UniProtKB/TrEMBL annotation:
Oligomer status and interactors: Septins polymerize into heterooligomeric protein complexes that form filaments.
UniProt-annotated location(s): Cell projection; Cytoplasm, Cytoskeleton
Transmembrane segments: none
Chain intervals with Low complexity compositional bias: 417-427
Pfam families to which the protein is assigned, alphabetical: Septin
Family: Belongs to the TRAFAC class TrmE-Era-EngA-EngB-Septin-like GTPase superfamily. Septin GTPase family.
Function: Filament-forming cytoskeletal GTPase.
InterPro entries: G_SEPTIN_dom (IPR030379), P-loop_NTPase (IPR027417), Septin (IPR016491)
Keywords for this protein: Cell projection, Cytoplasm, Cytoskeleton, GTP-binding, Nucleotide-binding
Provenance organism: Balaenoptera musculus
GO cellular component: cell projection; cytoskeleton
Name the UniProt record assigns to this protein: Septin
Coarse class of the protein's main subcellular location: other
UniProt GO molecular function: GTP binding
Length: 441
């Protein structure tokens, strides 16, 4: 495509600049068009939709997490105080709608109830990691839907993790190091020293140096305020050197001079929350809310969520390139995965069919063997029955023979007895006759 100049001078002519590696050319405009209002349109649309920001507060019970949140947002959030008797770590999430000028903010504060209160703290980080992954998974599932409603979806991904460190003045606890190491690839960690008025300034300075050294030596990646934007590069670079922030929280206002200020009253004096000579609360508020809130949201989406999404999709078998390092479209990946799945399904079906046939054959063999055993047992029992029957018949025959013999002997005995009785009667008659004859004489 060629363009003609509106005037004859080379300065007013349309120029084309071919950028290396890009298929576009830059041309000047002859007059006002209007797309310079796009930033205003974007601002108006964003303001009308509102913003969301999610903060995760990690730290032991009693370090002032709730108080600091109240102080940061200059309000009183409802919540029940945590106790030290929790059997495990529980994450409690509360969402609030805040309004400042014409900007609406849906703020979600997630607290780790019972963190560090158990005797065995080995798995204290697991519920936190699982919660963060669950928010990523919920967003991924919404993103993968055919009909997505991301413009009205409540994004619950954690944008900032305020890690509360106990003001021991010595070094980080092993629980803190392990937990931050497990979280640094999943969330933007901003370490803060809670209740920093519990130690002196000199101890606090040494404590900060010690914490920074331990984080570096253990490879813990904390959130660094961005320095690529010229407008905030200087202040962010300066604030990076102040990490971790030493903060104090208080919702109580005291009259100091002629002003009412948030402060904490002690027998030895007053600690002003918003006095940078007393603590880093103002630095934290500036960095977290007023300057880098959008960068925290962007880092969560472009870095931490993308890492989770990539790993999850790779687990599902999706890839950007084929084995030859050539570009691989999502449709091709889907088709390849589908064909692979169908192949595996057919293979499993064939294996199941063969296994079924094998089991049927084994069962048939078992049944045949059982049938054979039953037949053999039946034959043994039948033979045993026949033998027993023959024995009984032989015994019966023997008994019948004995009975017949007994009857014959009995008959013979009765006959003999009868004959004997007849003979005895005749002799008796003969003697009686002889006696009678003798009596006559």
């Amino acid at each position: 495509m060629e363009a003609e100049a509106n005037s004859g001078s080379p300065e007013d002519s349309w120029a084309f600049i071919q950028r290396p590696g890009e298929g576009c050319r830059t041309v000047p405009l002859a007059g006002h068009v209007g797309f310079d209002s796009l930033p205003d349109q974007l601002v108006n649309k964003s303001v009308s939709q509102g913003f969301c920001f999610n903060i995760l507060c990690v730290g032991e019970t009693g370090l002032g997490k709730s108080t600091l949140m109240d102080t940061l947002f200059n309000t009183k959030f409802e919540g029940e105080p945590a106790t030290h008797t929790q059997p495990g770590v529980q994450l409690r999430s509360n969402t609030y709608d805040l309004q400042e000028s014409n900007v609406g903010l849906k703020l979600t504060i997630v607290s780790t109830v019972g963190f560090g209160d158990q005797i065995n703290k080995e798995d204290s980080y697991k519920p936190i990691v699982e919660f963060i992954d669950a928010q990523f998974e919920a967003y991924l599932q919404e993103e993968l839907k055919i009909r997505r409603v991301l413009h009205i979806y409540h994004d619950s991904r954690i944008h900032a993790c305020l890690y509360f460190i106990a003001p021991t003045g010595h070094s980080l606890k092993s629980l803190d190091l392990v937990t931050m190491k497990k979280l640094d690839s999943k969330v933007n960690i901003i370490p803060i020293i809670a209740k920093s008025d519990a130690i002196s300034k000199s101890e606090l300075t040494k404590f900060k140096i010690k914490i920074t050294s331990e984080l570096v030596s253990n490879g813990v990646q904390i959130y660094q305020f961005p320095t690529d934007d010229e407008l905030v590069a200087e202040i962010n670079g300066t604030m990076n050197a102040h990490l971790p922030f030493a903060v104090i929280g208080s919702t109580e206002e005291l009259k100091i001079g002629n002003k009412m200020m948030k402060a904490r009253q002690y027998p030895w004096g007053t600690v002003q929350v918003e006095n940078e000579a007393h603590c880093d609360f103002v630095k934290l508020r500036e960095m977290l809310i007023r300057i880098n809130m959008e960068d925290l949201r962007e880092q969560t989406h472009s870095r931490h969520y993308e890492l989770y999404r990539r790993c999850k999709l790779e687990e599902m078998g999706f890839k950007d390139t084929d084995p030859d390092s050539k570009p691989f479209s999502l449709q091709e990946t889907y088709e390849a995965k589908r064909n692979e799945f169908l192949g595996e399904l057919q293979k499993k079906e064939e294996e199941m069919r063969q296994m079924f046939v094998q089991r049927v054959k084994e069962k048939e063999a078992e049944l045949k063997e059982a049938e054979k055993e039953l037949h053999e047992k039946f034959d043994r029992l039948k033979k045993l029955h026949q033998d027993e029957k023959k024995k009984l018949e032989d015994k019966k025959k023997s008994l019948d023979d004995e009975m017949n013999a007994f009857k014959q002997r009995k008959t013979a005995a009765e006959l003999l007895q009868s004959q004997g009785s007849q003979a005895g009667g005749a002799q008796t008659l003969k003697r009686d006759k002889e006696k009678k004859n003798l009596g006559f004489l």
